[in-house]
Design brief:
With 264 residues, this protein is of the alpha+beta class. It has two domains: 137 residues, Fructose-1,6-Bisphosphatase, Chain A, domain 1; 112 residues, D-Maltodextrin-Binding Protein, domain 2, CATH 3.40.190.80. 39% of the residues lie in helices and 25% in strands. It has an eight-stranded mixed sheet, sandwiched between helices. A five-stranded mixed sheet has the order 10-9-11-13-12, sandwiched between helices. The longest helix has 26 residues. It starts with 5 loop residues before the first helix and ends with a helix.
Length: 264
């Protein structure tokens, strides 16, 4: 099933429309680097504009669905069983610094379960999409998680807490447990793309804490549908509720989880 369903087509069309504007805005950001405040204000405006586009497109296509967005919070719909979960710009700091690694993230929850997801990087046109039970794809190519089983050969992605955000001490303990036993640890600055890259087999796994639902929703389904294993960072089965994630193939997942637990 590499032909997107009607639902996925709605999500892709919304992501591409918002993405066109973000790509134009991204082209302007480099010109604003000399003025830090100017660039930051510009990126905030781009973020808000992208969410407004997504809100309008998704609600026009599926009137009544609820909408949970990073900027506007939760908006209840008349249809209580469906909720869009949207991050209009994951990787804002990358965008601000003119680094072409950021994404639009759209997921659909049905009665609390994620049933579809789209992660789109307008800077290079990577379009990841998935639907529950139908697989995960990059453009029209079916995705599978990496087959690597040896922990010492693996490359993992993570997120590093920054100023005023996250548990710095805990992160350093986890990094110490993982980094000395693996081939590499990467921090690219977009949880959405980290998870998409796990689904694509580019990363062998990913862990991070202190994340929001819109960071995780699309990616956890991408990884699951690509054959991977996803829990929260403590091994629990509801990453969205926990706000943390541990994702890898079925061989490496327990090994990564063991290292994270050893850090506590």
């Amino acid at each position: 099933m590499s032909t997107p369903s009607a639902l996925i087509k709605v999500m892709i069309a919304a992501a591409r429309k918002a993405g066109r504007a973000l790509a134009r805005d991204f082209g302007e950001v480099a010109e604003l680097q000399v003025s830090k405040k100017g660039a930051a204000d510009y990126v905030t405006a781009a973020d808000l504009k992208a969410e407004q586009t997504l809100f309008e497109q998704l609600l026009q296509a599926r009137p009544g669905y609820g909408f949970l967005g990073e900027e506007r919070g939760m908006i209840e719909g008349t249809d209580k069983t469906h909720t869009w979960i949207v991050d209009p710009l994951d990787g804002t700091t990358n965008f601000l610094h003119a680094m072409p690694h950021f994404a639009i993230n759209i997921a659909l929850a049905r009665e609390g379960q994620i049933v579809a997801g789209v992660t789109y990087n307008p800077a290079n046109s990577d379009l990841f999409w998935t639907e529950r039970g139908r697989g995960a794809f990059l453009n029209d190519r079916r995705l599978r998680v990496a087959a690597r089983t040896r922990f010492e050969e693996a490359v993992f992605a993570t997120g590093i807490p920054f100023m005023g955000h996250g548990q710095h001490g805990r992160f350093l303990k986890e990094l110490h447990q993982v980094s000395q036993r693996v081939s590499g640890v990467r921090r690219f600055g977009s949880a959405a793309l980290d998870l998409a890259w796990v689904a694509a087999g580019r990363f062998d796994g990913f862990w991070e804490r202190d994340l929001a639902a819109w960071d995780l929703a699309a990616g956890l389904l991408l990884v699951t549908e690509a054959g991977g294993r996803v829990t929260d960072a403590d091994g629990g089965e509801n990453p969205l509720a926990a706000g943390s994630i541990c994702a890898a193939n079925s061989e490496l997942h327990p090994k990564l989880l063991e290292r994270l637990k050893a850090a506590n």
